[in-house]
Design brief:
Two copies of one chain form a homodimer.
Chain A: H1 22-34, H2 41-51, E1 57-58, H3 60-69, H4 76-88, E2 93-95, E3 103-105, E4 112-116, E5 121-125, E6 131-133, E7 142-155
Parallel strand pairs in A: 4-7
Antiparallel strand pairs in A: 1-3, 2-3, 4-5
Helix pairs in contact in A: 1-2, 2-3, 3-4
The structure holds a DNA duplex.
Chain lengths: 157, 157
DNA sequence: GTGATTGCAAATCTTTTGCACTAAA
DNA sequence: TTTAGTGCAAAAGATTTGCAATCAC
């Protein structure tokens, strides 16, 4: 909730094996342990890619490619497993934007998205800028888990 | 926009070949022609299932099963084609609710959805009850196509 | 050690595609 | 007839699964 894992650690080099990343590595390991997940090499690798920098939106395919580029072998199946485990642990949020492909958002706090339909690009809208009013009562026995707002964009003109 | 295709025609019998459905059949055929689509047997069949009653949310699989149950053979590939053609013609709207599967909504007017995560059930929220405020300016050269609001529900307590 | 985790390949599921056949205009 | 539309089966893409090998504790 309040460890400053972000910033200043990932910039300047792409290799996760670099010496300067050791602190990030253990911060991630700690975070995983706290979430009840064993900090295996693969989970730490993916955790560093996901949480080592700014908030981001990733698909399994993208994350897999990044891990390989960073010189760490992780199988695609493990990337899928890990993304779901992280989601279950509240470290990620799964996004349903377009059918066919799952995206995961490292920002699990309340916020919404611009989606550019032409090229599938996703952008955060800060959580406090949008307000949703006039929500009817949920059906009996149900309560609101959360509200997803997707603002779909097309080229102007 | 104003043909009363709905109600009173689909109730009472499941077979689309029934005599009483002839008026619906030609209403659908007309609607397809106006949309620039040839009213083939398959399209009329699917159109009757989709537009013959209340507004609904369907997947390709569901609609295919219904057509077969109604005694009309339509291939699954044709169901997919048809759903996309109808969507292109503005007769349906595609929904991105959960990844992995596409849903289509026969209600193309402005409205939003409750989504019950536990069983994947979708419910309409009337278009005029929800208001979204505080939308930031879209990025340069982009304009808002439309805004999807999905209110995710979980069991209370 | 022991149980959790991983990798691989095969399996599954949804959706798309190619092409010969059929039907609408 | 002419062109759009359909069916089938194969292909493609995303994700899951089974199981033996490997790793964290």
């Amino acid at each position: 909730m309040n460890e400053d894992i972000s910033d200043d650690l990932t910039s300047g080099d792409d290799s996760l094996a670099e010496a300067g990343l050791a602190p990030l590595q253990s911060a991630i390991a700690k975070r995983l342990r706290e979430a009840g997940l064993r900090p295996t090499r693969q989970r730490v690798t993916l955790g560093m890619l996901l949480f080592g920098g700014e908030d981001r939106h990733v698909s399994a395919e993208m994350l897999h490619a990044e891990a390989l580029t960073a010189g760490e072998h992780v199988s695609l199946a493990t990337v899928y497993n890990t993304l779901h485990q992280f989601t279950g642990a509240g470290l990620l949020r799964e996004l349903a934007i377009d059918g066919g492909k799952a995206y995961f958002d490292t920002n699990t706090s309340n916020h919404n998205h611009f989606f550019i339909e032409a090229d599938g690009e996703l952008m955060d809208i800060p959580g406090d800028s949008i307000r949703v009013d006039g929500l009817p009562e949920p059906p009996e026995g149900m309560k609101v888990s959360h509200i997803d707002v997707v603002v779909r964009l097309v080229p102007k003109g």
